[in-house]
Amino acid sequence: MNNAWDKAKNLAEKHATQGSIFVRLQNDADAVVGVFCGEPYAREVYWDGEKYVEATTDGPPPGATAKSPSLRVALNFYVPSEGTMKIVEGGTQWFRDLVNVREKYGLDKWIFEIKRHGKPKDPKTKYTILPEEKIDEALRAKVASVPAHDLAQMSAGTDDAETSDTPKVVDLDVARQFADRLRVLPRADADLFLLEFRIERVRDLPNDKVPSALQFLLKLEAAHKSSNGAKESAIDPFAV
User: Fold this and answer.
1) Domain span including residue 44
2) Is residue 9 part of a domain?
3) Where would I find the H helices in the chain?
4) Alpha-carbon span 42 to 28, nearest angstrom
5) Fewer Cβ in 10 A, N or C end of the chain?
């Protein structure tokens, strides 16, 4: 994509992230500023290749990628720039850092910045938690007026905080049908389709977006057909 398309795509991803219940720091240097609220909710989980599964006394579930469970800790996190209560979740090292920050600064006194250091899927990714500024009385009142999420209910059966609220995607056959029709259109039209539904691949299309995606595709096809017809009519086959 050119710079204009890259910029539009990044903005679409930003707005999709802002509408999410979970804090999603997906790329290197992504950051969020907010207030930690309430008590943490900790659980031991296994990663099965697609999502986190709560650990039980029965041992690793089918498909588990590790023999021992890992720790996931979730907290409510108020984001002033959006005026909403979200959920932030991290692993062992992230929580250790948070405990150190709590002991040094006190989570109820400061607004904090959480920043990602690492590209997507980089196993060496780390997060910093640094105090931004002290909480004033006006912000404290706003935080108190916003209900906290039920962390146990929200975390049950979810993925990582970066993807846990992602809707179920379409079946592979449906994705192929969309892809086959998009292939005959100009690449710019395919890029428009991906941008419209905030996805990087057709197979990532949410299942509940199929009706609107079909309507959008029909408009692209109609515009393409009309454009081709105009080009053909502009040619005089009898010109000498």
Assistant:
1) 24-155
2) no
3) 3-18, 92-105, 137-145, 151-155, 172-183, 187-196, 210-233
4) 26
5) C
**Among 87, 158, 93, residue whose Cα is nearest residue 124:** 93
The encoded tokens of residue 225 equal: 């057909």
Q: For tokens 């904090």, what's the residue?
A: 112
Per-residue pLDDT of the chain (240 residues; tens, 9 = 90+): 566 666 565 555 554 444 578 898 989 999 999 999 999 999 998 877 667 788 888 888 887 777 888 899 999 999 999 999 999 999 999 999 999 999 999 999 999 999 999 988 787 899 999 999 999 999 999 999 999 998 888 766 444 434 333 346 777 788 888 889 999 899 888 888 888 888 878 888 887 788 889 999 999 999 888 776 655 555 555 454
- Pair 28, 136 in one domain: yes
